[in-house]
User: What shape does this take?
Amino acid sequence: MLQFFLKRLMALVLTLVVASGVIFLCLEIVPGDPALYMLGLNAQEDTLAALRAELGLDMGPLARYWAWVSGMVVGDFGISYTYRTPVAEMVAERLKVSLPLAVYALTLSTAIAFPAGIWAASRRGRGADIAVMGVTQLGVAIPNFWFAMLMVLVFAIQLRWFNAGGFAGWEAGVGPALKSLTLPAIALALPQASILARVMRSALLESLNEDYVRTARAKGLSRGQALWRHALRNALIPVLTIIGLQFAFLMAGAIIIENVFYLPGLGRLVFQAISARDLIVVESVVMLLVFAVVVVNFLVDIAYALVDPRLRGQV
Amino acid sequence: MSLRNLIIGGTLSGVFLLAALLSFLWVPQDVTQLDIANKIRPPSAGHWLGTDHYGRDILSMIMVGARTSIAVALVAVGIGMGLGVPLGLAAAARHGGWLDEAIMRGNDLVFAFPSLLIAIMITAIFGASAVNAIIAIGIFNIPVFARLTRSGALSLWRRDFILAAQVAGKGAVRISVEHILPNVTNLLIVQGTIQFSLGILAEAGLSYVGLGAQPPTPSWGRMLADSQTMVSFAPHMALFPGMAILLTVLGLNLLGDGLRDMLDPRLRRLR
Assistant: This one.
């Protein structure tokens, strides 16, 4: 187990090192001088040089890469070119929106997908199964930002149950804050829930075909008892993988959904930073998201190995 | 069930493909021609799907937009297959070697980036355009096809007919091309359909946030972005482009499901 853990950890660190290198290189070749952008075209040469020195732009690429990475390890993400505030502070501020949104959406999608998938699998081939499969087929195909717009039209404009956009802020209390995240979370959760329900259904159907379920049935358990006590536990492995992978999609999907609802999250920060050529912010946010995805997948891998000893040998 | 999926899926995606092709020859109204006097009109006999905020015919916009969506998604699948399949074949042929390891770790790396982030970075670097959207979506397709090809090929390499080919003196490259590739084609076709539909969704998302095809080239995502501020009084502007995306993606997914059931008899028996 220790060997498995160390091997996975090494792969994790290696992935992060390469990813940071790729991100740094990509943004290194972006044309445009941030100092010139900040000061405008009429800037004096000596002011430009002073600002470049202040931002660390006068160092060589390797030195800058090292400064960026070693800073990030201790939580120093550098200073934003446009806002002149520490990037870490900006990111922390935005995470207060983006992280709860992702968790909210993940909770919703699991809460919808589990019962739907189990229900469909236990009524295989019957009306309920066909209905669930039909709805999930639509859920996978619908662009979530369009679904978000339709929800705004119905629930915000027509029924006036929710605001069409914006974030109430956690200062306003948990209730109003969660309320302003509800429509975005539903929009993010819908495609994920559809995928998850399908995976749940097929994993459950597969484990219902296994011999141990037949044994359980032969021992006198009802179909429902066999499903809940035996089949479901084994079906959870593929379902957990998908939940782990979905985290990445939720973070990325949030970038677009935050734009639909004008939420002040990481996604909007990235877009604002791109249009303002605030590369240090783009670099740091992208790296942070990659870090989150890699770590979540690492944790899922470790969780598996703990649950299922057979997987430890396969690295 | 599978035949029904195949027919519905094929019809839906066929309609949009035909609409895209037809748009090269004929559209109800030129999409570059503005008609401000007739802006934001609901569906009527003259404009079946209404007009947008510049008075452009929405049906024509959707037809020309189909062109953008399909082209971007199709080329992105082409990039993914063109690079991913050889990589996967090579990884399987040299299973366990450094090449296999390097290719798989490289794939992990691409998987670690949420696809949209790649797209955003690429457009941040090279600017927003349809071509950069293609590259962004295509890059994410490479590991998908590489993994699929590798896993399909790995199981084939253990089969007797490959051993026979080896005994006959064929090299790894020749075996991969002559014996492995034809046997993973079914897998690739099915996955290609799925990636095609994902590509359409991705293109719509990118152009919605302004990172895809640039105006005046119509694109479905852009139409939705334009309609957003007018959705309260002109819902038709948001409804029809969204329906176009939904139906195309739904069609392709059903087609993929149908093809998988048809091409993989093992699955057909299980159902």
Observations:
- Chain A is about 75% helix and 0% strand.
